[in-house]
Amino acid sequence: MNTISNPTPTLETLLAVEACREAARRYSHGVDRLDPDTMRSAYWPDGTDDHGTFVGNAHDFVEHCMTGHTRWAWTMHSIFNHRVEISGDGRTGRGEVYNVTNLMRADERVLDTWYGRYLDEYEQRDGEWRILHRVCVHEGDTAQAVPDGMPIDAAAFRQGAFDRPSNGRRFGP
């Protein structure tokens, strides 16, 4: 198997690894901004997602998230330690993504934090990489009451919920 750990990966392998990582970033951006089109673009239409409370078609999972995530005022998926291995034929890949997600409840000042991993299978079709299968693995979680505010006046800043859902706004103001 041709992997990123190979001391001399090919340019094609490096580009494939980055494309797989970009699919994971699209997922995170889409779910946090309640942007179903961006989130859907991370998965192939015939892809699957096993998120414990939902197991099935990945595009159906997107719709599940668009309603399920409204219980939080905001969410922030932080993904890191993203290891990707590309198959020898350069058409499939496997990945493991570490994930810490903060979710502020909409109805009370409680911050839920999720610790876990995504186990992904990627596939390239017509030059594009997307997630074909994803399994969400739970490592731990916490819920913590959050006192009001920081010692600065944060009210002067744009508040994160102003663009949730993003209504197709890609990046920037």
From TrEMBL:
Gene3D superfamilies: 3.10.450.50. InterPro entries: NTF2-like_dom_sf, SnoaL-like. Residues 13-134 form the SnoaL-like domain. It comes from the Bacteria. This is SnoaL-like domain-containing protein. It comes from Ilumatobacter coccineus (strain NBRC 103263 / KCTC 29153 / YM16-304).
